[in-house]
Amino acid sequence: MTASCNAAEAAPAGRSPAAVVVAHPDDEALWLSSIVASADRVVFCFGALFDRPRDSEARRQAVTALPLRGIVNLAVPESGAGLCTDWADPQPTPAGMRISEPTARVRYESNYATIVEGLRSCLDGFPDVFTHNPWGEYGHTEHIQVHRAVAALQPELGFALWFSNYVGFRSWPLARRLGSELRWVRRRVVKPDRATARRLRRIYRLHGAWTWTPTHRWPSREVLYSLPVPASSERGYPMTGEWLLDVARLRWWPPLPFPRRRLSPA
Predict the structure, then answer these.
(1) Number of other residues whose CB lies within 10 A of the CB of residue 139
(2) Was domain 18-262 assigned CATH 3.40.50.10320?
(3) pLDDT tens-digit profile of 25-64?
(4) Which of 24, 257, 50 has the alpha carbon at shortest distance from 137?
(5) CB hemisphere CA count around 47 (13 angstroms)
(6) Do 174 and 135 form a contact (C-beta atoms < 8 A)?
(7) Based on the number of CB atoms within 10 Å of its own CB, is 63 exposed (0-12), middle (13-18) or buried (19 or more)?
């Protein structure tokens, strides 16, 4: 069920309200399973897949079946720019990433403004917002765009911006570049909620809307980082030296040991 973006509702006693913001349905199960079940709002930014109407309907039906609280589906049509960037030489832009295909770039940049405006009322009143990391996990330009949109609203709304520590081969150059620039102020080592993640995966699979590998396994733990509000006086710590989870090694078969990669300067 899709909720409207009303003011943040009161969280259970002893916990402040939290919102999860992801690009696509199933991202919440993959990258933020440790928080999604307890979140008071879950926002999906993108709806229709680019030029794939049948898959778009499958996704829509899956979202309506999800057992999550406070779902808000912005349903912005995908731009088709998901992988249209030079990952060997990644160039961040205010809207996310530099897109190589001209018509996809126009759609992509237009989507950024739509997402920022859609998120403004959705995130008002939430002290903690969890979203994609700055390099887009395995390297997806729409994940990065959503991170940028959430980050753009952080100074205005004053929330703590959180992300998890997943990375991929494609996004590694960007993660290394950003590692020397980013400063985190709080860090949580948490256990992924495997039961919730698998339950969500079953629903997506039932509707034909699961977009990730069927052999994915959730790690025993993940790390959440919080970025400071710009101009904050809080002490920040560099991302360089932190351990990231390599998504290519998080699979059941063939089994691969040591899924972590240490973030070193570019």
Answers:
(1) 24
(2) yes
(3) 999 999 999 999 999 999 999 999 999 999 999 999 999 9
(4) 24
(5) 13
(6) yes
(7) buried
- Which residue shows structure tokens 């809207």? 95
Return phi, psi of residue 184, to 5°: -100, 150
Residue carrying the six token digits 């919730």: 196
This prediction has a pTM of 0.94
User: Do 228 and 219 form a contact (C-beta atoms < 8 A)?
Assistant: no
Confidence of residue 7 (pLDDT cuts 50, 70, 90): low
Tokens 């256990």, residue? 191
Domain boundaries, the chain: 18-262
Q: Spell out the residues 6+ positions from residue 17 whose beta carbon is closer than 8 angstroms to its own.
A: 8, 9, 10, 11, 40, 41, 125, 126, 127, 128
Kindly report the CA angle at 177 between 223 and 184, in degrees rounded to 5?
Answer: 35
CB-CB contact of 199 with 168 (8 Å): no
Instruction: Calculate the average pLDDT of the chain.
Output: 93
Q: How many CA atoms lie within 13 A of 177 on its CB side?
A: 13
The first and second tokens of residue 50, run together, are 């680019």
Long-range contacts of 100-105 (CB under 8 A, 24+ apart): 104/79, 104/80, 105/81
